[in-house]
Amino acid sequence: MGGKQSNFGAVYVEADQPYFVGGQIVSGKIHVDIRKPFPGNQLCLKVVGDEITRWRQRVRGRERRRNHGRRRRINQGYKSMLSFRIPIMNWQSETIPVGQYVFPFSFKLPKPLPGSFSYEQKKHICAKVTYRMVAMIDPTSPKSKVKPLHYSLPLVIREDIAPQDIRADSQEDVKHFYNLGLFEAGSTSLRCTVQKNAFPSNERIDATLAIDNTKCNSDLKELSVKVIQEIRMKSNDGVERTIVNSLEKKKFEGPKKRMQVDREISILLGGHYNQNSTYGTALTCQYYLQVKTKPDSMLCFSKGPKVKIPIRIFAN
């Protein structure tokens, strides 16, 4: 991003706020510094927003033959969300005189818009939602060898989280257990409740757990709490891929048999969350608070109750 200076001068874009949400007015200033008469007479601002997904996928058998014998296929997705130009200034002469100029601008974003997002894994995976504003002064003559003056500024968009969307949430799961003789060994229920479902990246998530193990004849060995990130990508051909990242994690001792436990838990979100929750067409990023129990090893073919509460995380 940015722009290069030339012998003729340079342009620079400045936004009034560090980030915006869909439906909001974007305002700022364009600074133009002309050091040598530039053979152009129009300044415009281009606004662009794209969803981009790209990943490699191993292919086998018939699918490999359809892929011309190649072992890997590249899946790509693209969706344009914004693309428009705003005329800012027209000079009456064929050239822009030497001088320094400042021009204000403003425009309204459509609503809703997916939040800005970027995730890359070496050269194998790329998932982005990007927006940018480009100030441009093109030469008047299309045959001119003079390069245009331009400057590109990233436009940071966040998901619009209305106060009424921030609310408490609760989920419950019940599992039946079986012992080595395949006889039923009882059941356990797990309920998790959070007081709100949206958090800044350095806040603490507080939750209440209610574990009813009174109907089970075995202990629960472990109780784990995680913050999970799920990135879902879709290609233009309809191929989908999901990436699951386990972030913050805590473990607790599970309840004994024939016991009921109520527990308050707290998990601190690290300040390293620079990927906001986003909900696009080709790309979504959703966070969850996952609570999972691990039953005693004497219980076979059995998994403990598990709940996943969707939450939103936004960077400060």
Radius of gyration over all CA atoms, rounded: 27 Å
Kindly estimate the percentage of residues that lie in beta strands according to DSSP.
over 45%
What order do the SSEs take from the amino end to the carboxyl end, as H and E? EEEEHEEEEEEEEEEEEEEEE
Shape: elongated
What is the helix tally? 1
> How confident is the prediction overall: mean pLDDT?
88
Query: Portion of residues in helices?
Result: under 10%
Reported for the largest beta sheet, the result is:
6 strands, mixed
Terminal-residue CA separation: 22 Å
Oligomer: single chain
> How many extended strands?
20
Account of the 3D structure:
It is a single chain. This protein is elongated. With 316 residues, the chain is mainly β. It is built from one helix and 20 strands. The relative contact order is 0.19. The strands form five sheets. Strands 13, 15, 16, 18, 19 and 20 form a six-stranded mixed β-sheet that branches. Strands 4, 5, 7, 8 and 9 form a five-stranded antiparallel β-sheet that branches. A four-stranded antiparallel β-sheet has the order 11-12-14-17, with no helix packed on it.
